[in-house]
Amino acid sequence: MPMSDEILKQKPKVLIPEVRLQARIAELAQEIGNDYRGHDITAICVLKGSFVFFSDLIRKLDLRCTCEFLGVSSYGNKMVSSGEVKVTLDLNDPIENKHVLVIEDIVDSGLTLSYIMNTLRARKPASLKSCSLLLKPDALKTDIEPDYTGFKIGNEFVVGYGIDFAGKFRGLPFLGYIEHGH
User: Fold this and answer.
1) Which residues contact 139 (CB under 8 A, 6 or more apart)?
2) Which end of the chain has fewer CB atoms within 10 angstroms, the N or the C?
3) Catalytic residue from among 35, 62, 108, 164
4) pLDDT tens across 99-149, in order?
5) Contacting residues for 94 by C-beta, under 8 A, at least 6 apart
């Protein structure tokens, strides 16, 4: 049986319960709100994994906020980032001279975020920062770290709260992990 079938049959274990996620998101919103006080921001949701985090975060932000969506793919159906990034959906509107906040679900190798930040920087925003719900410091292959991080985690294979494996588990209200043999 292929490993992916084995994984899809598992019930994810809770890594970060819903109540802790929501409390941390409220803190992040406060921090971001303080930093951008008096500015309108363009919040970019990196699809697909961060849509749940994005919607919870922007509803807690006390800022005027325009929402944009950027689709990128670097996993396919693999458990490890390929490091090759392809844009599957580009922004609708220009971001030149705007205060831009990129919102990610997870930064592991850092290669996707690095690619996104470089691509967007070339479009001349007034400022450009990033926020990730999760950071796997041990997996970083670049020196990029998000400006705002919800939680630092180990190398758990996480699912839930918007994050999928082969299209499954996105709807879980908590952040879970799947044990997999190596």
Assistant:
1) 108, 109, 110, 155
2) C
3) 108
4) 999 999 999 989 899 999 999 999 999 999 999 999 999 999 988 899 999
5) 123
What is the tens place of the pLDDT at every residue in 135-149? Answer: 999 999 988 899 999
pLDDT, residue 2, reads 60
Of the pLDDT bands very low, low, confident and very high (cuts 50, 70, 90), residue 85 is confident
Q: How far apart are CA 28 and CA 156, in angstroms?
A: 22
pTM of the model: 0.91
CATH architecture of 16-159: 3-Layer(aba) Sandwich (3.40)
- Phi/psi for 136 (5° steps) reads -105, 90
Asked about 108 being catalytic, the answer comes back as yes
Cα–Cα distance list, 156 to 12, 39, 55, 69, 132 (Å): 11, 37, 24, 27, 16
- Taking the C-alpha atoms of residue 158 and residue 154, their distance in angstroms, rounded to an integer, is 10
